[in-house]
Amino acid sequence: MAKVKLTKTALKQQRDNLKQFLRFLPTLQLKKQQLQVEMRQCLEHIARNEEHERQGKKAIASWIGLFGSEKEALRVADAVRIQKIDTDFLNIAGVEVPRFQGVVFENRPYDLFLEDLWFDDAVAAVKRIVELRIERAIVRRQFDLIRQELLVTTQRVNLFEKIKIPECRENIRTIQIYLGDMDTSSVARSKIAKKKLREAVA
Q1: What is d(CA 21, CA 10) in angstroms, rounded to the nearest whole number?
Q2: Which residues pair with 96 in a beta bridge?
Q3: Which of 54, 69, 107, 113 has the most CB atoms around its CB within 10 Å?
């Protein structure tokens, strides 16, 4: 802790600092709470996404054996090619995070009359699973960015609560005691000087 000057100017500076810290602290605490809520929502989103993928896999489990060979599985995979991933950005408590909008798949035409009956359903199911996995990766990225910001915000809250505000209060107390002692000492010196002056005149 830097040594504080024991002056009225320093006292005013410390009071101004304290007022500023006390004004900013609630904003930081609110930001911290908001980030914690957003992190919980990300985790819930990820859990829902994983559950949807499990349900999707379960739904196709009954006919996935129809793929028969690796060649047929590759035909399905070949029909599912990503053209682009649509995202935009969202501001959460001052943090820019990516938000999943959707996946655009390449239009790879195939003849439904020539393909097996299950082929179209298999392609749709695989596309849905790919979409879920991409969405989950983006939500995890959101989570990581929010967690980083939460770490910084928590450090700032702790700095204000545990160091800066107590330090200012202690500095104000120290300066006030010193200035009070100086005032008392000044009054005492003044009385002594007046007494000596009276004695000299008398």
Answers
A1: 16
A2: 91
A3: 54
